């Protein structure tokens, strides 16, 4: 297997969007796509898209664009989607049920191989053909089933223990929905989805939009109005979405 | 109201983690915190934390660290959490139920003010004291209730229409869980949480970890093994989590 290039994290996050748009094109029998069209479909500007794809050695053809089937193959290879990956889902409350039923996983080669919970009421429940097991079995099953990715949908108080059990079972990638920071060894990747944080980021932008339309009070410097002060700084990067 | 500084997006994303750790400290009667301790609790390195907080004009005291109560006040102000923000949740399937019941919202001043769905079976259901309304009422209710943030937890096919209705009702911030890209006017911020994309990002890292432990086949250049080629490039940034 050739060594894969190290890609900027932001590029890695955009590749799945390109892939989704490309699959839609393929389903509608398009054989080529321009960078402008693909960029719009993925919600990015086309210069960024061309830069991203150049990392994969994909440059398109002037006047024609990219070959859809080839680009799909290249992106799926780089994202490792040509290998089916087994996923363990831990925590089968509302969020766990939502994740267990999420269509988008299976179409990208992710197979939810096992479900776990600590609540005896939930253990034994059947969801989408899988029977929920007790979390005490997690390390053993993760190891036996060669589970690559663990998804944590438990309360915060349980999450670190679950992470420890996943790591003990050989899992090296974790998707964490619990509102807490996990401690993991080097070599274990963690992605975090935190709903409260997403709302707070939106709140920041709302607050800033409101402040930009307001005037400072007469005689008051905008910079000292708060105890401790908020110093204006040079923006390091534009606020993007 | 003083004009708020424009902060790098990455800093904005870390402020809520600092806030969570600070609230834990305050609940345990700690009055000061060192940058090292706070950085560890938030899962970042302390130089990055100090840089982030300097954007707010917070520099700490040598040998002592930061004043917990003051830092909470500054971060809550910048994030706009001193204003209670009304949230509309659209789509009350499993994911919507999980979001509606998520404790972390209320503690940060976010009030789920209204629930909507297009399914007549779900309309009229009571969740956490709120009655689910039909999505046809969305624009009117969003306007009447001064809803600031819309959360879209619908299937992809419905999401753009819901976004249009939210925008028509005066909503300027959207948190999108549907696996699609939304088109919105300038001035409307969209944050996207896409579960399939998160798994694909993890898959990329898994694939790369596997490839780094494998050797190229004898006689084969790693760079040409794939049709179209994968060109090695200079990493622009380290893969972080």
Automatic annotation (TrEMBL), chains A, B:
Keywords in alphabetical order: Cytoplasm, DNA-binding, NAD, Repressor, Transcription, Transcription regulation
InterPro entries, sorted: CoA-bd, NAD(P)-bd_dom_sf, Rex_actinobacterial-type, Rex_DNA-bd_C_dom, Tscrpt_rep_Rex, WH-like_DNA-bd_sf, WH_DNA-bd_sf
Keyword Repressor in record: yes
SMART domains given in the database record: CoA_binding
Known DNA-binding region: 17-56
Sequence ranges assigned to domain CoA-binding in this UniProt record: 81-181
PANTHER family documented for this protein: REDOX-SENSING TRANSCRIPTIONAL REPRESSOR REX (PTHR35786), REDOX-SENSING TRANSCRIPTIONAL REPRESSOR REX 1 (PTHR35786:SF1)
General function of this protein: Modulates transcription in response to changes in cellular NADH/NAD(+) redox state.
Protein name as it appears in the record: Redox-sensing transcriptional repressor Rex
């Amino acid at each position: 297997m050739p060594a894969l290039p190290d890609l900027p994290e932001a590029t890695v996050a955009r590749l799945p969007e390109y892939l989704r748009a490309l699959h839609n094109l393929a389903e509608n029998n398009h054989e080529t796509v321009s960078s402008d069209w693909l960029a719009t479909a993925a919600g990015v500007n086309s210069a960024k898209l061309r830069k991203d794809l150049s990392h994969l050695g994909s440059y398109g053809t002037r006047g024609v664009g990219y070959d859809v089937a080839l680009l799909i193959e290249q992106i799926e290879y780089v994202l490792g989607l040509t290998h089916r990956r087994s996923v363990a889902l831990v925590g089968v409350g509302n969020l766990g049920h939502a994740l267990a039923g999420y269509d988008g996983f299976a179409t990208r080669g992710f197979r939810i191989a096992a479900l776990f919970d600590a609540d005896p009421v939930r253990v034994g429940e059947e969801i989408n053909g899988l029977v929920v097991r007790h979390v005490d079995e997690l390390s053993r099953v993760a190891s036996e089933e060669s589970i690559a990715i663990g998804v944590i949908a438990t309360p915060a108080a349980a999450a670190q223990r679950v992470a420890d059990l996943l790591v003990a079972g050989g899992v090296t990638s974790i998707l964490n929905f619990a509102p807490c920071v996990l401690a993991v060894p080097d070599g274990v990747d963690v992605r975090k989805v935190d709903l409260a944080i997403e709302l707070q980021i939106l709140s920041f932008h709302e607050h800033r939009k409101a402040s930009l339309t307001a005037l400072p009070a007469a005689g008051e410097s905008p910079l000292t109005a708060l105890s401790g002060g908020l110093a204006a700084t040079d923006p390091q990067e534009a606020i993007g979405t």
